[in-house]
User: What shape does this take?
Amino acid sequence: MTMETTSQTSKPARPAATPSFSIGALFRRPEVGAFMGMVLVFVFFAYFGFDRNFLSPFGTSSWVNMASTIGIIAIPIGFLMIAGELDISIGAMVPAAKMSMAIACGYYGLPFVVGLLITFGIAFVVGWINGMLVTRTNVPSLIVTLATLFAVSGLTLFLSLLLTDTTSQALTSPPVAKFIFGDYHFWGFQSSVFWWIAIAAVLYYVLHMSPWGNWILALGGDKESARNAGIPIDKLKISLFILTAMAAALSGVCETVLSNSATTTTNFALIFNCIIAVVVGGVLLTGGFGTVAGVFFGTATLAIVQQGIGYTPFDRNLSSLIIGVMLLIAVLMNDTFRNMATSMSTSKKGK
Amino acid sequence: MTAPVLEMRNVDKSFGPIDVLHEINLKVHAGEVLCLLGDNGAGKSTLIRTLSGVHKPTRGEMLMDGEAVNFSNPKQAQQMGIATVHQFGGTYPLMSVGRNFFVGAEPTKGWGPFKVFDRQKANAIAVDAVQKFGITRITDGDRLVGGLSGGERQSLAIARAVHFGARVLILDEPTAALGVKQAAHVLRIVNEAKRRGLAVIFITHQVMHAMAVGDHFAVLIRGAIAADFRKGDKSREEIADLMAGGESMADLEASIEGYMETHEGHPPPAH
Assistant: This one.
């Protein structure tokens, strides 16, 4: 409810400001930067990979499929990063989810739905533990999730050997489950591609349209102020950790159903891929800013470089070089954007 | 005479054996600015936290509109209409003016679980509210707050507090990090808040700023109110002396000089 809002102040002050700067307008759309980066990389590989069918359906699905397995996890990771946290335990959560699916349904022959319940239940608990540890202890989430990364990884290996005596397990899924989670559809797109798009759409709504998005941004922007504004910051953080672990589990389930097998190997590369995708997508490492579309494009860019290199005459190992350079450029651009946004007409801020 | 909006009677606050506040008596009426002056370590922060419900007084009572109140947490104090605005607190540089304004109380449209943040409404209300405080430079609710000046951010925070029904505004060093022009800007906002009938508690150690807006002054030294006077009762120099510790400061200087005279001009060794 507004208080009395009668007259204006006596002083008319300065005339109405000039329309906001185009730089400011551009900054508000940082996904444009990520999009342009993606287009640039795409054109580059389309040109050099044209002869080797980079643009063919098979060539397209090869990078889109890879992007989807990263992208399902990268968007929740992006949310965490916007909120000022990080979760690297996904590198162990994915194989844990794979093994729990394969052991429950493949080894013990439980119904597929039960396997899903067990797997997502485990993911929920892992996410909850991460969130509780971070909110209760105030230990940086990088360290907390580094600890849970190894804990989950060790537990996965231990339980797999204890229960099945092997570190890899086959899984045969019913046709419906296969269709939903792990089959090749038109153009060779995996089921996970559709999950990726669906998750991006839902999380776009959450971050940019729902009030929760405002809370996440505020949490990353200034934790104390967010708490004072009445945002349940601990609950919000715990929810984000749970969301991330569940997303990692979904990615793992999709992969296992697709390949009909699971292994306990911890996926360290995935951790880095997710962080790269998020940062290239324009999310600030320090939190408080980022977009779903940006992370989506960042993931696509990463996948194009990693898969596209095989369609060009260049050495495959150069893809890492390109990604490294790209990451650096993205971070520098992010910093420039942030400085432009925060230093426009404020020189004496102190903080 | 109407009861003060907020009053403290003989409030003590101690943390274990350490007494931080001692016999604090304060009152602030609607449409009045109370300036709390004090040097670093005088207990200003503890006093603010007690006023805003973070700490509970160890002894003494707090009254709102003449009735005793007992805040169990800051949220409760906020609901009673006590809004605390910290230096840059409450504004998020990388969020738009409209989003900043409504953090934690977002207006939504739509139905059921598909509620959507009403950007247009938020922007319109936010821009209107800050413009009514004389910040006419903000015309676009989509602008990022990081692009505003410190004074404008402060004003946004105050406008937000007023919009959400604040009756007592506690401003914690609002002009401390600002330039001359920006500070003047914030002081205008304080005057505007006062004109609208808010009770303002203005915490500062800049005597000039206090003199510009204050109706009532209280000087805090070592957790106790050392002086309590109304506008025009004391000169700027007198207030500055009071804040620096008054008598004790003069004593200290005299003792240093005395030591130097008897020790061939050497200052006393640091202990």
Notes: The first helix of chain A runs from residue 22 to 27. Residues 340 and 346 of chain A are 10 Å apart (CA to CA).
